[in-house]
């Protein structure tokens, strides 16, 4: 990083539910670290799930972020406006033979899995469709069978080698080199059945588009960085620095989650909380 290069950070929530204290912590911590490095913070709205990410939830998210004092520069990038870019990148990977169509249901994957789990605890894909012939694929495509597109991880790593990433430690000074283990994920989905992308594909493309130099996010995404470094290398994208922060947890030591209906910022505000109380609760004051 040269003296003329301003660091670029981003906060990238998904408005598929209401934000909670964990989101507030991540947003405000990103602001704090960006200020420490003399950088700017961008906002990205990760709404590839266009059914669950409603305009009402986007508006509520923006209102919540303004309420807690989150600051960002420029116009937020909406992933739902970027589908053509994601399709183009997926087409490139298809042409290179790095991704393949998968026609399997979740039930088929569960029934054929060998017991191994990925870092998120899901069964590793057993490779049912990896070796389909061109004729078999053409037949299934002609039948309009629902399908996703998976990365052939072994083939990808033959091109990239074992990836590494640079992890900024909590002191914001020390940078450790982390050796990634992408094979722990198996053949991950890069294009979903219902959407022309996935979290993994869209996040690396958007970080590059927005010139993000520093990625701050929760430790629940630590191991996913292995996938992202593979994709960045395959697609010749820049490599940002990473910082994975601690998670805000409930009384049972479980991470806060929209899917578990963790108390939202909106609910706290309706109960009479102030933004200062939110910041104090997550130790950001």
Automatic annotation (TrEMBL):
**MF term (GO), any:** ligase activity
Q: Where is the Glutamyl/glutaminyl-tRNA synthetase class Ib catalytic domain?
A: 9-276
- Top EC class for this record: ligase
User: What UniProt keywords are attached to this protein's entry?
Assistant: Aminoacyl-tRNA synthetase, ATP-binding, Ligase, Metal-binding, Nucleotide-binding, Protein biosynthesis, Zinc
**What InterPro entries does the record tag this protein with?**
aa-tRNA-synth_I_CS, Glu/Gln-tRNA-synth, Glu/Gln-tRNA-synth_Ib_cat-dom, GluQ/Sye, Rossmann-like_a/b/a_fold
Q: List its EC numbers.
A: 6.1.1.-
Q: Which family does it belong to?
A: Belongs to the class-I aminoacyl-tRNA synthetase family.
What PANTHER family does the annotation carry?
GLUTAMATE--TRNA LIGASE, GLUTAMYL-Q TRNA(ASP) SYNTHETASE
Q: Which NCBIfam families match?
A: PRK05710.1-4
Q: What is this protein called?
A: tRNA glutamyl-Q(34) synthetase GluQRS
User: What's the encoding gene here?
Assistant: gluQRS
